[in-house]
Design brief:
The structure is a homodimer of 268-residue chains. Chain A is of the alpha/beta class and 268 residues long. Chain A is built from nine helices and eight strands. Chain A has one domain: Vaccinia Virus protein VP39 (Rossmann fold, 3-Layer(aba) Sandwich). Helices cover 42% and strands 23% of the residues of chain A. In chain A, α4 links the parallel β4 and β5 (130-140). The interface between A and B is medium-sized, with 29 and 29 residues.
Chain lengths: 268, 268
């Protein structure tokens, strides 16, 4: 997890909070768990999704695990600030969970598999701790789904740098499109994937600010030094990409990105 | 209209019918007009959308216009075969409509602007014949929104050929992302655009067949001769793209494409 492509800075924590707010409705509106359900959030990070999940499902109990102590401290502060009492935070390795087989009613995993060299291994472990008849929900983005108006090859080149850096760290920034075969191969049944497309234009300033600028562009901007240092892109092209981003979030620009949500069940 | 990039063959008519069936719910479920409304469908082609619109809105009256006599004959046969009595078909040029100002309650225009060298001119004409307080609905695709699993640079190159050929004929295959600035610039008010993403995997055979194979791949396949003749792509690369398409519609493949629906009003 030292290889988390976006790093662990406090501006990264803010970026994740903005992302969670804008995406709350798009991704979470249909994530509901019954009263008393025991739900594992695998890879909770700083708790950006945890507080939404636990807030939306006050009668379910959440066990949110992550490997990073620093992230868990932030998650604890966030859970506490939201006054939530249905969340336990634990430091655990998602590849070797310290839970017995068939323990949880549901598993929730958001923006985690994209960073793993072998997401299938994690899915196998999730399946082990999931009860027969239990369900898994996986949410991921896909950076190859991004496009904007005006179209820009320089922006595409900058986004490609992010995909390449994530690949070097063992991840897959194009994992969203791959959730169906991944969950199927891990043995989950009745896998259903739905695209969740976020779109922004000048009539939607909260999406332009919360997603286009403060989530996506901030994420791309965050890899400038590494991309240029590795000579994945020239300084001049990088600057042009950032200028083109300004047009895409301007009054005549538009912005589009697709997340994927997959649900599967453990047929036992 | 002799430059319609996809041609006027009978297999093209079948392609449009398959497309209309799969997209019926995605694009049409929220297109509803009140009893007695007078609606212009600008550029109805062979009537693929017309029969859905008129069937979904039996109490509204539709005037569907197109420049092609051959397309109108097919549209008439389709309207008749569906037993619809609320459609008038007329041969008209959408740039010079033979209707007075402020004549229609609503305008509907689907998969038309993408083929026009100056979509703004058509939108101005639509605005002229639209009553103050009336609304316009525009639906377009965006070929730059397409992606699939496994990812394939050869497929991207083949799709780029389609975009280029459409550009040569004066069209814009990336128009979906541009609907907000286009409608705004034409003077429509309260413009709202929503992305409509179609996604296919092995659990959705009707989408794989109706959209991935018989709509999108068929459309790309249709430009093979022209693309190779113009040397936009090599024969070898084209063949690889088609082979990669087979993986994308196979049991471990996925397919994604985004349409855009825009609604605006005539503030007078």
């Amino acid at each position: 997890m030292n290889d988390y492509v976006h790093g662990y800075s406090s501006s990264e924590t803010e970026r994740l909070d903005d992302q969670a707010q804008v995406l709350r409705r798009l991704l979470h509106h249909d994530v509901r768990f019954r009263e008393g359900a025991k739900v594992l959030e695998a890879g909770c990070g700083t708790g950006a999704q945890t507080v939404i999940l636990a807030g939306n499902n006050p009668a379910a109990h959440f066990v949110a695990v992550d490997l990073s102590e620093a992230s868990l401290r932030e998650a604890a502060a966030s859970v506490s600030a939201h006054g939530l009492t249905n969340v336990s935070l634990e430091r655990q390795d998602i590849f070797e969970l310290r839970y017995p087989d068939n323990y949880f009613d549901h598993i929730f995993c958001c923006f985690v598999l994209e960073h793993l060299p072998d997401p299938n291994l994690a899915l196998q472990e999730f399946k082990r701790v999931l009860k027969a008849g239990g369900s898994i929900t996986v949410i991921e983005g896909d950076h190859g789904s991004f496009f904007c108006h005006p179209p820009s090859e320089d922006i595409s080149a900058a986004v490609d740098c992010l995909v390449e850096l994530q690949r070097q760290k063992g991840g897959d920034a194009l994992i969203g499109r791959r959730l169906f075969p991944l969950l199927s191969a891990a043995g989950f049944a009745s896998v259903q994937v739905s695209p969740r497309t976020i779109y922004a234009d000048d009539s939607l300033p909260e999406v332009v600010n919360g997603f286009s600028k403060r989530t996506f562009i901030a994420m791309v901007a965050g890899i400038e030094d590494e991309a240029i240092e590795q000579q994945l892109i020239s300084t001049q092209r990088w600057r042009q990409a950032m200028a083109d981003f300004n047009l895409a979030v301007g009054s005549e620009g538009t912005f589009c990105y697709t997340f994927f949500k997959a649900v599967g069940s453990n047929s036992g």
